[in-house]
Write a structure and sequence with these properties.
mainly alpha, MetI-like
Length: 269
């Protein structure tokens, strides 16, 4: 009597598993198949030729460009965010919460909506390059970075800072020895989201970088679809796996801190 629903549930789960697994199976089978044709089939040969192509020439340079833009944006976002969020957390500035939420609401605008002023500001400043991309993405990240870091700093007991101050610690020592270590989970969350956001960014690098040698992998992946009317499926799938790998790797590197950070993320008024 209970076998009916169980069988239906099993069939439904199996169907969902097939749907979920099929794209990944296609991706990996074609990536490791030197004779890939783009079909979902068991490869007649296995090799790393496609991955060798995906890390050489322009593709290898694009990987380095992506790492530079993503790591640079994440690091700069954290540094600027800490410098601005700590005073907002500790100083009783009138209207600070309204200021923060106004920034967040403005950030709800799509990136394309602020692209023109960003472009002309970068052009006037001579920053139509990778450094300009890093600065522009940092500016766009700043509202959420400020909000998250301020909330994490709010959870650090101010009594610890007062005790350290009485013992003769300077402000820099209080921040580096007490506040930042106790907020490392929040810093890890901010760094990870800034990294993945910059890693996946397509429009700003395409418009700001302007030359092929400065393009990141997101632009390279777009170009890999049908250059000169032909698609090399082996190269495309290997390139896609390499494109996804750093974000997954960063997550596992920061996993311990991020699990705590996700649990501690809260939005206070």
């Amino acid at each position: 009597m209970e076998t009916g629903p169980s069988r239906l549930t099993a069939i439904a789960l199996a169907f969902m598993a097939v749907i979920w697994v099929s794209p990944f199976s296609w991706l990996f089978l074609n990536a490791f198949n030197p004779l890939s044709t783009g079909q979902l089939e068991i490869p007649r040969a296995l090799g790393l030729d496609n991955f060798a192509m995906a890390v050489s020439g322009n593709a290898g340079r694009q990987f380095l460009n992506s790492m530079l833009i993503a790591a640079g944006t994440a690091t700069l976002s954290v540094i600027v965010g800490i410098s601005a969020a700590y005073p907002l957390s500790r100083l009783r500035i009138p209207g600070r919460n309204a200021f923060l939420w106004t920034l967040v609401l403005l950030r709800m605008l799509p990136s394309a909506g602020v692209l023109v002023p960003l472009y002309f500001a970068a052009q006037r400043s001579g920053l139509l390059n990778q450094l300009g991309v890093i600065i522009a993405l940092t500016v766009l990240n700043l509202p959420f970075t400020l909000l998250l870091l301020k909330n994490f700093f709010d959870t650090v007991p101010i009594e610890l800072e007062e005790a350290a101050y009485v013992e003769g610690a300077s402000l820099l020592q209080i921040i580096t020895k007490i506040v930042l270590p106790m907020s490392k989970a929040g810093i890890a969350v901010v760094w990870f989201f800034s990294f993945t956001g910059a890693w996946n960014e397509f429009l700003l690098p395409l418009i700001f970088a302007r030359v092929q040698d400065a393009f990141p992998m997101s632009v390279g992946l777009y170009a890999a679809f049908g250059q000169q009317g032909a698609i090399n499926y082996g190269f495309l799938t290997a390139f896609s796996i390499l494109y996804a790998a750093p974000a997954v790797g960063v997550y596992f590197l920061l996993r311990r801190n991020m699990n705590t950070g996700f649990a501690g993320v809260g939005v206070k008024g």
